[in-house]
Predict the 3D structure of the following.
Amino acid sequence: MTANKMNEPSQRPVVCWFRRDLRVADNPAFHSAVATGLPVIPLFVVDSDLIAGIPSDGAVFDFQAEALRDLDENLKKLGGRLIVRKGRLLEVFSSIIAEAAPIFCFFNRDYEPSALERDSNAANFLQSKGISVSSFKDVVIHAPDEVLTTGGGTYAVFTPYAAKWKTLSKPTPVGRPARFVTPHLRSDDIPGASSIGRKVEIQSPAVRGGETNAKSRWEQFLGTALAGYGESRDIPSIDGTSMMSPYLRFGCISPVRMYADLLSAALRTGRRDFGDKYLSELIWREFYTAVLYHFPLTAGGNYRREFDSMKWNTDGSVFKAWKEGRTGFPLVDAGMRQLNRTGWMHNRVRMVVASFLTKDLLTDWREGEKYFATKLLDIEKASNVGGWQWSASTGVDPKPLRIFNPTLQAERYDPEGKYIRKWIPELRNVPAKFIFEPWKMGPALQGESGVLIGKDYPAPIVDHREAAASFKRAYYSVKDANRAPETIGSIKRRK
Ligand SMILES: Cc1cc2nc3c(=O)[nH]c(=O)nc-3n(C[C@H](O)[C@H](O)[C@H](O)COP(=O)(O)OP(=O)(O)OC[C@H]3O[C@@H](n4cnc5c(N)ncnc54)[C@H](O)[C@@H]3O)c2cc1C
């Protein structure tokens, strides 16, 4: 298209602002942008201010770069291409307006508190320049304001939330969009860890980014592990979970598509409950999204406010041992090493390491949450804060106080010690009888197994029974001093 033609009123382009929806299939904002029949500017903004506030390892940015390259390829197959621009968001929009005079901007909504603020500023700015803005539901099947109690209240307990969620009618995938053109505009390079100056410590990322990889991983999971998911999802040594979390985080696949596929699988098998357990996990994700949306202060504060007076341990040496996977408790250490090496950790083990940090080491959950945020490829503020507050017993959905015993958890969920041996090679030759408690081996057996406790692998840094008892004392002293407990309070949002 020539510049003149592009400036004719009927040919003014529309912007599709990509953020955490890096795909072409079932992407409502992109679909609507293409459906206008006008030229489309698929825009990704590399906002230096935003990046500075993201603590992630470089591997997360490399994952995003893979997803962006794949997105560009997929856009090219439809006739267009990705336009990447570096700079502050509103300045980038100003240049795009000056260069291409778009009439519309489409984007998919994000419910994280900081994203809500950014999007509202961006929408106000664009509208002030005469550009119409349309936003769409995308990162969840049901937005936080859709799943409310009959009185219009918010849920703070999962089971009734999930029951209500299931009663609502579901959106269907919008499918693949038609062909389109992208105006001739300059594009900056796709940013990876090195170009933004971020160190890569995660050496072997668990998965590679992109819509294409997401699709093939999802199809593989649907055809294999989904059938046994209910049983295998708790066993960290097997490939029993979907590993879709990083793809959901970057929007390389849509939850609406996943829901539709689960439904088709249930129809195919003739079992109505087929995929139910998996669906329940997707609902947990939406539950936590809703909790953070309605209670944004939980991002950094205890939902149950009585725990504001909890005296956490600030001993940096135990926190360091936990981060490095050197606590002496094999399942905890295996999990932390999997995280440090791959940017992903199995859910069962996330629960164990989080319980261990908060309850055995009495360390503030916020420290663990921050550390996970630096390492996880699937980092989602809502699920991370939700998972940590659940583990620390400071969050929504109060359950009886749970303190995981890291040895019993290992015996139950890694009965042959396969997961432990994989991530802690120094324990590879420890006999099965001692794999969960290697410190119980005598000196001769340690020698035979090639691991000297205290030298090659640490002795336990705490006594679990004593640590659990002291956590209980701290926990009940806070609870008993607050007979009328308060919660953090929700934010009433303007519609
Ligand atoms: C302390 C802690 C921190 C966590 N931090 C995150 C995080 O930052 N990002 C994140 O996506 N998940 C987080 N989780 C939840 C869960 O561990 C991961 O979603 C899961 O391990 C991802 O692997 P998967 O895709 O193979 O899961 P699958 O078992 O295949 O589950 C399918 C999908 O359901 C969702 N899901 C599963 N379990 C949960 C859960 N407990 N809470 C919320 N959503 C869930 C995820 O989107 C996941 O991809 C955290 C859990 C804990 C205990």
Q: What stands out?
A: The pocket of flavin-adenine dinucleotide is lined by residues 233, 241-245, 248, 281-282, 284-285, 288, 347, 350-351, 354, 372, 376, 378-380, 383-384, 387-388, 391 (CB under 6 Å). The chain is about 45% helix and 5% strand.
